Amino acid sequence: MATMVNTYEEFTKNNNVTLEMLSEKVVLVNGKTRSTWKSKKWGFGFCYNNNYYYISDREKIPYHSLKVQDSAQGSNLKARTVEIDLTPKAHDTKIVKHEKFNQIKTCVECDIPVYLVGEAGTGKNFTLEQIAKEMGLEFYFTNSVQQEYKLTGFIDAGGKFHETEFYKAFTNGGLFFLDEIDASIPEVLVLLNAAIANRYFEFPNGRVEAHPDFRVVAAGNTVGSGADELYTGRLVLDQATLDRFVVIEFDYDRNVEMNLAHGNEQLVNFVRGLRRFSKENGIRATFSYRCIITTTKLMETGMNLKTILTIAIFKGLDKDTVNTFRTDLVKDGNTGKFYYALKELQGAA
C-alpha cells in the first residue's frame, strides 16, 4: 500500500473519478463512501484502491448536493436544488440483545440458578441488567468474594448491621449476580449453596426467609475446572456447587459487536480474526468488546490507525508477539484497512 499526496485536481484526473465531501469525516469517490482521517504529517486523507491518499488542498473538494426534480401533472414547477443537512448524526445505538438472552431469561423466570461461562468482556453484566429490567427486578452485583462478610454482611462495634448486595436481593427480591465465582473462596460457595437449597439464610442479624423474587446468576471465566494459562488464580468448583446451576456458555456475539462498532464490519472481522488466531496459537491475549468500543471512538477523532492498533488493540503485547498475528480472508472475512494497518505496524516493529 502506497502513500500519495495529491491536489484535488490530480487525484480526480489521475484516477478518473469524482471526489466530493459528504461530511467532515466521509468523502464520496465516484459516489461510494470512504472514511477520512487527519494526519499531522500529511493532512486530510482516505483510503482508495488499497492506497492512502492525502489531499493537499482539502478546501477545494466540493460538498455533495442533492438535486430533486419536482414533478406534478400539469405543473410548471422547475427543477430546484434542495439544501440538505449533511452534519454527521450521532450513532443510533439500538438495544441489541445477546444471542443467549432469551435462554438465560427463561431460566431466571423459572427460578433456576444460572452459571455463565465465558471470556472476560463478553457483556455478561450488561445482559443480566437487561434481563432484570425486563422482569421488573432490581439488579445486585458482587464480584469475586474473598471474605465471607462481603456476602453475609456484618455487625459493627456499635451494633449496626451492614447490608450487602446479596442480603438486599435475598430479603427484598431481585437478581443477584456473583461474577468471577471461580475466583471466590470455597467458604462463600458453601454459603451460597445453602441459601439456594434452603431458601433461608442465617445472617449476622438473624435468620431470613428468601423473598419469592430472589434470583441467582453466577459467572466465571472457566467451567469450574480451575486455573488455566489465560485465567490464573481460578479455583476448582466442587460438584455440589455446579449441580445447583444450569451452565450456559456465554461467548462474544457478532450482533453486539456490530452495534458497538457502529456497523464497521471490517473492524469486527479484524478483532474476531485476532481472537481466533490467538486461541489457535496459544497466545495469551484478550480482544474484547472494549477493543471495539475504544477503537471506534479513536477512529472518529481521526487518529492514525496504526497508533490505534498499538494503544487499543495490541496493548501489552511485545513486538515479537504482534509480528506473529495474521488474519485470514476466508476464515475472518474482509478486514480492509485494518489488515494493511497491521502490516504497516509489523513492518515498523
Features:
single chain, about 350 residues, alpha/beta, Rossmann fold, 3 domains, 6-stranded mixed sheet, 5-stranded parallel sheet, about 35% helix
Cα distance spanning the termini: 17 Å
Assign an overall shape. elongated
Q: Tell me the name of the CATH class of the largest domain.
A: Alpha Beta
Strand content: 15-25%
The CATH architecture of the largest domain comes to: 3-Layer(aba) Sandwich
Main beta sheet: strand number and arrangement? 6 strands, mixed
Number of strand segments: 17
Cα Rg: 27 Å
Count the domains: 3
With strands numbered from the N-terminus, the spatial order across the biggest sheet is: 1-6-5-4-3-2
Q: Count of helical segments?
A: 14
* Residue runs with pLDDT of under 50 for 5 or more positions: 66-92, 226-234
For CATH, the homologous superfamily of the largest domain is named as P-loop containing nucleotide triphosphate hydrolases
Judged by helices, strands and strand pairing, the structural class is alpha/beta
Oligomer classification? single chain
**Mean of residue pLDDT?**
83
Helix share, percent: 25-40%
The CATH topology of the largest domain corresponds to: Rossmann fold
